[in-house]
Amino acid sequence: MTVETEKQLNYKNKVILAPMVRFGTLPMRLLALEFGAEIVYTEELIDLKLIKSKRRFNSALDTIDFVDPSDGTIVFRTCEKERSKVVLQLGTSNAQRALSVGKLIQNDIAGIDINMGCPKEFSIKGGMGVALLAAPEKAANILRTLCENLNIPVTCKIRILPNLEDTIKLVQRFAATGIAAIAIHARTRDERPQHEPHPDFIREIAKCVNIPVIANGGSRDIQKYADIFKFKELCGANSVMIARAAQLNISIFRKEGLLPIDDVIYRYLKLSVDYDNAAHNSKYCVQNILKELQETPRGKKFLQCQTLQQICEIWNLGEYCYTKQLEFKEKGNFGRREVAPGHIPDVEGPDLKRQKLEVPELPKDVIECNIAFLRSNYTADTQLPKTMLYTFSCQQQKQKPIYETQGIDKLFRAICAYDGKKYTSSFWEKNKKQAEQGAALVCLLNIGVVSEDSLIRNGSILR
After folding, report:
1. I need a surface site. Which of 77, 238, 375, 393 has the fewest CB within 10 A?
2. What kind and span of H or E run contains 148?
3. Residue 349 pLDDT grade (very low, low, confident, very high; cuts 50, 70, 90)
């Protein structure tokens, strides 16, 4: 490695946020660091997705984005605040693919971890995750290749094998590749959270290797900050990695004690707004915090939310979200509202130039507005824009509306013809039905059936 040792990430005596799918995105990692975590792992990111991504500095958010050039979605987003403490966990089964990813991202992260512990079917079928434990030669080759060619620390996260001696031999083999540390989940491939962990395995393993051992799998007994160190002592490990206990309440990392979940959600949502986190991801993370509280009246209202602003309204951050989104838009941030066939951000620089497919130009007589159809805004089918427009046309004794839909690059745009005029939304939808609803909504706005203020309030229009 070319980076000086003292400048590299040290895995000794650390409390760490574990890699968790959909949970370990940028806002949650930053919140974990704010509360006291010393190292944060990303969710598992698959090598093939990262290899085809393009690196771009996002000047609107002050982040580094790795962008999927096919549709402009963010594969991985990071920032300077976590630069020295973030470890990217990679899902891979191929040393050269892993190395390609490592070279692409090594200047933006503190370390890279190979996932050898995920028991999910997706990972196993791809020869990734826990499947690598059954192919130790391949696994060791991946680790050795990265250690010899990258300038950042390389680690791996495994599960124990059913036999202690076999597990020790495997860990020793991996340690010999040059990895900086190894995280061990104290359960076997087939065991799940309801099964008792095996801290005795980790305790014996730690005696047999000279690299830091990070204990994982103790969340069922971690209710407060002090419990983290009880698990560490029980395992005889150098460091502790927290997963489910952090998922329930990320303030588990606070030495001062847990915060009420509303405080946690508020702080999490604020970071989600600040870093333009995808609404569906933010919703998933909040769901994991709320748990059974999703059944309360407020919880049910939350479950109906579709946009980040709608979620933020519940926790008194609606105005903050709205203002920040306008600010980001003025700065040129590329978001879902700008997605169109072949339109992607320029990944070579901060300017958001676009590469275009052959999209037919709209006829000059078509009235266009940027309005998104958000299904969660309509609790009854009778309130749907198409139904409202049809009912209105009957009341006015006019010809029924007609829809013409274009599908390009898996995105859809509809034109609604009504009463001698045509209407469409510049917001491309992901299916034909939603595109028609969006076009109907544009028509309803222009003929005065719905107001612009109401569409701004429910998130359909972003001014």
Report:
1. 375
2. helix 136-149
3. very low
